[in-house]
Amino acid sequence: MISPMRTIVDIPDQFIESLDRLGTTNHQSRAALIREAIADFLKVKSLPPSEAAFGIWKSRKMDGVDYQNELREEWESR
Predict the structure, then answer these.
(1) Which residues contact 30 (CB under 8 A, 6 or more apart)?
(2) Cβ atoms 14, 22 nearer than 8 A
(3) CA 66 → CA 53, 59, 63, 71, distances in Å?
(4) How do residues 40-60 score in pLDDT, each as one tens digit?
């Protein structure tokens, strides 16, 4: 297991109040909430660009190539 490191971070009072309310509701410490937030942030920000973009068109009704062709048609009509 990786040994934890202590650090000092300046956090605005309004964030601390929100963390405390959330901690009371979820029965978690402020530190646990901050660790969870950091872990979630790193998951999102650490994705390679190819993985972050994977599936971006899945909810679209139009194929990516059709979309490109539609844009090109707009350019030609100008």
Answers:
(1) 16, 19, 20, 23
(2) no
(3) 18, 15, 5, 9
(4) 999 888 877 777 777 777 888
The vertex-26 CA angle with 3 and 2, nearest 5°, equals 10
What are the φ/ψ torsions at residue 33 (nearest 5 degrees)?
A: -65, -40
Q: Token pair 């909430």 is at which residue?
A: 33
Residue 23 and residue 33 in contact, taking contact as beta carbons nearer than 8 Å: yes
Give the max Cα distance, the chain: 63
Q: Tally Cβ neighbours within 10 Å of residue 19.
A: 19
Joined together, the tokens standing for residue 68 give 């490109």
Q: Could you write out the three-class secondary structure of 7-20?
A: CCCCCCHHHHHHHH
Claim: this prediction has a pTM higher than 0.90:
no
